[in-house]
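#lab-general

N.A. 3:47 PM
ok so I finally got the sequence cleaned up, no stray characters, all 359 residues accounted for. can someone with queue access submit it? mine expired

B.Y. 3:52 PM
send it over

N.A. 3:53 PM
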Amino acid sequence: MSDTTDLRMPSVDPAALTCPAPLRDQSRVVMGHGGGGALSAELMRDVFAPAYGGDTLAQLGDAAALSLGGVRLAFSTDSFVVRPLFFPGGSIGDLAVNGTVNDLAMSGARASYLSCGFILEEGVELETVARVADALGAAARAAGVEVATGDTKVVEAGHGDGVFINTAGIGLIPAGVDLRPQRVVPGDVVIVSGPIGAHGVAIMSVREGLEFGVEIESDCAALGGLVDAMLAVTPDLHVLRDPTRGGLGAALNEIALASGTGVVVTEREVPVPPAVANACAVLGLDPMYVANEGKLVAFVPRQHADSVLDAMRAHPLGAEARIIGETVVEHPGMVVARTGLGGTRVIDLPIGEQLPRIC
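B.Y. 4:20 PM
back already:
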């Protein structure tokens, strides 16, 4: 036997290799295109926007603000492909309602009606479908919204993943409410409604069979009531956003880019539950980019910030709301965090997503 170690690389098929950070020069769709980060933005900019056109789509809000017969409406659609279908704190049925209700709420609208489309894979158990439908119906009743129409399709076994859902929703935008990132100005106060990161970590813990000493539950919730409480203080909020895919980091970057202002966040003020922080440390994740399903970030004129914060804290879904930063003239379009050590770091727009299939 030779005592010389063979250091030659084994034969490797380059086509079989994967990269956790997707390359930007792609000729095919990759998972990162659905992650709510830079790849998603490029897909919209380079493929969908030129194909569809239209000034309304160009606003790129969570919901489209429309004028129809003299009435201002918010209209939104979303698709849900979460895996697993059931997780601590919710299910794909809860997400399907709350995700669309929240997109409408970010325009200031209280959802009135939803459509619901189910895509079922051949072979999925009817008991599973019934559980999802029951959860969806219960979430709709809790949010005060009616499922008014729907559709069902079935695909062959192996061509789906049990249950996919699409929902669309409409709601009225109150008079005097104009929520869009273009209204953000330097000096606005940035408020987050509560601790971040629970949803993404809850999904990952179940998906990978991980235990962190305490069960982490999704924050999945309908935010319409919280937004109503904020608007009751003043309709002059500048923008709201629910930081789902791409997390808080992506939401802040989207608003900074669209408004042309800089955003400065005090890192120690960003609320991260200890269990989420510990899980992210183990998994090598940044909580700023982990998805939420029951939180919002608000950009509020400074003169209204304290009153809006008080109203948020008086609501169950905003009890832990906190001011985390402000908008500035410097570094327009960029988000910067002041660290606990007195330095700064750039919170960039993620390329793809840390956790795929979380909504």
